[in-house]
Amino acid sequence: xxxxxxxxxxxxxxxxxxxxxxxxxxxxxxxxxxxxxxxxxxxxxxxxxxxxxxxxxxxxxxxxxxxxxxxxxxxxxxxxxxxxxxxxxxxxxxxxxxxxxxxxxxxxxxxxxxxxxxxxxxxxxxxxxxxxxxxxxxxxxxxxxxxxxxxxxxxxxxxxxxxxxxxxxxxxxxxxxxxxxxxxxxxxxxxxxxxxxxxxxxxxxxxxxxxxxxxxxxxxxxxxxxxxxxxxxxxxxxxxxxxxxxxxxxxxxxxxxxxxxxxxxxxxxxxxxxxxxxxxxxxxxxxxxxxxxxxxxxxxxxxxxxxxxxxx
Amino acid sequence: xxxxxxxxxxxxxxxxxxxxxxxxxxxxxxxxxxxxxxxxxxxxxxxxxxxxxxxxxxxxxxxxxxxxxxxxxxxxxxxxxxxxxxxxxxxxxxxxxxxxxxxxx
Lengths: 312, 105
Known about the structure:
The structure holds two protein chains of two kinds. By secondary structure, chain A is α/β, with parallel strands linked by helices. Chain A contains nine helices and nine strands. Chain A has helices at about 25-35, 50-55, 60-70, 85-105, 135-150, 165-170, 215-235, 265-280, 295-310; strands spanning about 5, 75-80, 80-85, 110-115, 155-160, 175-185, 205-210, 240-245, 285. In chain A, strands 1-4-9-8-5-6-7 form a seven-stranded parallel β-sheet, with helices on both faces.
């Protein structure tokens, strides 16, 4: 089995005519029902993230700003990010899913989890929203793993087409959480150069793999496999968290790096191999981007198939 | 469409010494039931300098699954020793648990 987190409440984060819209999850959930994959998964219930967990990554005053903005009816909280009346609660539910998945995986309930959540998280900074993101789901979960369950180091692998700038910031000086991001570059948000490798005690625990537009699929996949394998061999992670964005698909309207759906099989298998080598196979995957709902559903299907297929 | 194994083999042509790719290939061979090739690949990783610790564990798991319990024990004992030498106590613990689950010789 694999733990599968999804909930209709994620649709209540209403964003209007925006790439990051509820239809993304609607299409995924329908597709997983149609293929029967959802029935092969365990479906946990969980709570919204607590203040204690949230505060390890975000200022609580920032969370209150988001809550107040939502209570006031919402709107565009920053250039790219929309908030609706339910968004604060929904974002807390998303972060809560990632934390619950970590807790259950660490407890041995399962070895894999997929959190189909929104809003995404990897651009959400300590004190402000950014790039469709309110709270950094993967970072909050990684901190919970380290602080509450003594699992370290944790490795966050971010294959969203955009650099996970906020995740990088969160662990820039932290040797307990490694961060590898493969992303289109130069591109939004402008960070993620190869020379950004961490600082102080965290020096060397951040690895950026910038990929120029026009890079072949073969080269992208080979570089990812080689660099991830070597990085993990150095880090010896005890848990792998995936910031799973699918906007590097060639037909994505926001990202696009020429990948095909089948390429996410390879990305997933490489992460699973790394997790087998170092982390007892423990992987928590958290949805980030992917803005062509039909394509996104196909990508999530193959990703979940691999997560399920790897169960012994 | 090339299989995962074929893609890894293609990558290995350019990076023949890469330990993670060799390990990944052994995993694919195991999935295909080609245990001889898989175990040989793991054996070569165990002979690397320094040895690739995960290969001992995977080898032990695979051998135990094939009923070759004494060989599994040997791989695990060697792996525990190597893991400790490399300071990888988590891996040593995992292999210790598997070794214990195999019972006494």
